[in-house]
Amino acid sequence: MVIPAWNEAGLIEDAVRGARNIGEEVIVVDAGSPDRTATLAADAGAKVVLTAKSRGLQLDAGARAAGGDVLLFLHADARLPSAARDAILGALADPRAIGGNFRLVFLPESRFTRFLAVSNDLRRMLTRRYYGDSGIFARRTAYFALGGFPPLPLMEDYAFSRSMERAGRTAYIRHPAIYASDRRFHGRELAVLWLWMRLQTAHWLGAGPDTLARAYPDVREADSGAFIDAWRKAAPPPGCRLRG
């Protein structure tokens, strides 16, 4: 399991503990965070890899440091219940499946996050388009055959997911769902929704990754307590399936 990180001191210990309920190996790829992210991750039991700051570069470095046959990529502000392990193994029991992702739900819950959950679900089912916050996983052999995540600061997840979709069968795991923080858009929902639309349009029109990354604000220092509290209320006991 690979978690890219930059200034995630408020979330990384909880992220590592949660990830260890799913897989034995947790790799945090830190980009030299000045807030002790790497130290806290190591103390929580993760293997820490250091790279330059670029999410695509970090994700690929983590994949190359991993030893498992299945790679799962998680954001520091996303959580999966322990049932996710069996769900992934069940999806990959089909030898034709090369990877996939999870249905995405944002916390804390609100009208806007419920709208996002429904729209993301429909987009995945209708267009087979998805991003890294939905918990992308892949067979190790397929990951490297496809060239892995490109070394981009933004849209690296979209690029890799499109490669998977073109290469073979993927699984969309709707139960259990993955839960992600609303911190990027909390309090400015419409402005961020408009920004997402502009960024995706610019990407399709050929804008470079560095240009897109400069337009996407870094919110990793935002308060994370509300998300952790909401996740703990939503999380089922180990071994149970979360239906939310």
Quote the CATH topology: Spore Coat Polysaccharide Biosynthesis Protein SpsA, Chain A
Distance between the termini: 23 Å
Number of discrete helical segments: 10
The averaged pLDDT comes out at: 87
Number of domain modules: 1
CATH architecture classification: Alpha-Beta Complex
- General form: globular
DSSP E strands, number: 8
Give, in spatial order, the strands making up the sheet with the most strands: 4-7-6-8-5
Layout of helices and strands:
Blueprint: E1 2-5, H1 12-20, E2 27-30, H2 37-43, E3 47-50, H3 55-65, E4 70-72, E5 78-79, H4 84-91, E6 97-107, H5 111-127, E7 137-139, H6 140-145, H7 156-167, E8 169-181, H8 189-204, H9 209-214, H10 225-234
Parallel strand pairs: 1-2, 2-3, 6-8
Antiparallel strand pairs: 4-7, 5-8, 6-7
Provide a descriptive summary of the structure in words:
This protein has helices at 12-20, 37-43, 55-65, 84-91, 111-127, 140-145, 156-167, 189-204, 209-214, 225-234, and strands at residues 2-5, 27-30, 47-50, 70-72, 78-79, 97-107, 137-139, 169-181. It is of the alpha/beta class and 244 residues long. The strands form two sheets. It has a five-stranded mixed sheet with strand order 4-7-6-8-5. It has a three-stranded parallel sheet with strand order 1-2-3, with helices on both faces. The relative contact order is 0.16. Mean pLDDT is 87; it is low at 237-244.
Features:
single chain, 244 residues, alpha/beta, Spore Coat Polysaccharide Biosynthesis Protein SpsA, Chain A, five-stranded mixed beta sheet, three-stranded parallel beta sheet, globular, disordered C terminus
